[in-house]
Structures are given as C-alpha cells and as structure tokens.
Write a structure and sequence with these properties.
Helix content: 55-70%
Strand content: under 5%
Number of strands: 2
Shape: globular
Oligomer: single chain
Largest sheet: 2 strands, antiparallel
C-alpha cells in the first residue's frame, strides 16, 4: 500500500494534469483554477485537507515553486459568509515559510471575490482591510513588507476612486437591485 506522501504526490499530479486538460496550460505546474471555488477565491482548494505532516515535507522538496502552489489552495479565512478573520493555519504558514514579499503575490487575487456589487472602492476597501490585518498580526518581516507595499498601492487606488466619485456601500434591502442598477448607470 502506498505511503500517505505518495498518495498526496499522485493527487497533486492528477490535479495538475486535470488543470492542463481544462485550461490547456499547466500554469507552471501550479493548481491554479482547480485550487479554490470559482465563486469565492478565498475558499480553500481540494488539497487543503492534506495533513501538515505530509504537506510540509512535500513543500520543502521544491520550496521555491511549491510555496506558490500551497498559497493558491490553503484556507485563508475563518468565519461565516464574509470570512474576514485570517485562519490560524494560513498565518502560521506565512510566519514559518514565506521568505520574500513576492511569495505572497498568489494570495492577492484570493483576498476578495472577482464579483461584487456597488462601488469598486468598496471592493478595494475590503481588500485593504484584509491586507492590513495580515500585516498587523504576523511577525514575518517579509509578510509585513508585502502588506505595507500593497496597502500603499490600494490606498492610492482608493484615493483616486474617492476623488472621482463618493464611496457608496452596496445597497441592501428589498429594492437593492433597483439601486444597484441606478449605481451602474451612473458609472457608465
């Protein structure tokens, strides 16, 4: 019977092969696209359930490439639907294994979903909150540097949007679809 680590390697190989079959590209061997739920990029990927005792040795076999893959599918947030609290597992992983600010770039697209309602500034505000929260809670100097740099960039975008148009929270309630339609009309 194969060892757990061998089963993990097989699962990773099959997932990468499936990614190629679906997308036509390997994305450098990463499991992008298959990693997390298409509707909510912050959700964990299928391989998130692999025990740490198996995943970490696998990661260390080819750390520079595999850290990107792990960050594509690790569970990032705890909580309900809004999932605003960083999970203990993701922060521990960042604290122990990130060795460069650039290594955190794969999680940028996972901070918020690709779909939102209302102002784009609202989406940036949520992303900024999550980036700053990670920077405040991690002792990892590379994660802090990544957070500081990305926060400055988001604040710049946020400021540009505020100059163009006041920030409005997405409408809620029974008439929210009508209000969102009016909001979209104002943006065009």
């Amino acid at each position: 019977m194969p060892a757990e680590a061998d089963l993990f390697r097989l699962a990773h190989h099959n997932q990468t092969k499936d990614t190629v079959a679906v997308t036509g590209r390997a994305s450098g061997g990463a499991i992008i696209g298959h990693g997390s739920d298409m509707g909510n990029p912050s959700d964990p990927g299928v391989l998130d359930r692999v025990p740490t005792r198996i995943m970490i040795p696998w990661l260390l076999e080819d750390r520079d490439i595999r850290i990107q893959e792990v960050l594509e599918w690790i569970r990032m947030f705890d909580g309900g639907e809004r999932k605003t609290t960083w999970s203990d597992e993701s922060t521990a992983f960042v604290d122990q294994h990130v060795q460069s600010p650039d290594e955190l770039d794969p999680i940028r697209h996972r901070l918020v979903t690709g779909v939102w309602s209302g102002s784009y500034a609202y989406k940036l505000e949520l992303e900024l909150d999550r980036v700053e929260q990670l920077g405040a809670m991690t002792p990892n100097p590379f994660a802090k540097a990544w957070s500081t740099k990305l926060s400055a960039s988001l604040r710049n975008k946020f400021g540009t949007l505020k100059e163009r148009r006041p920030i409005a929270k997405p409408p809620t309630g029974p008439n929210s679809r009508i209000a969102m339609s009016k909001d979209r009309a104002l943006l065009t």
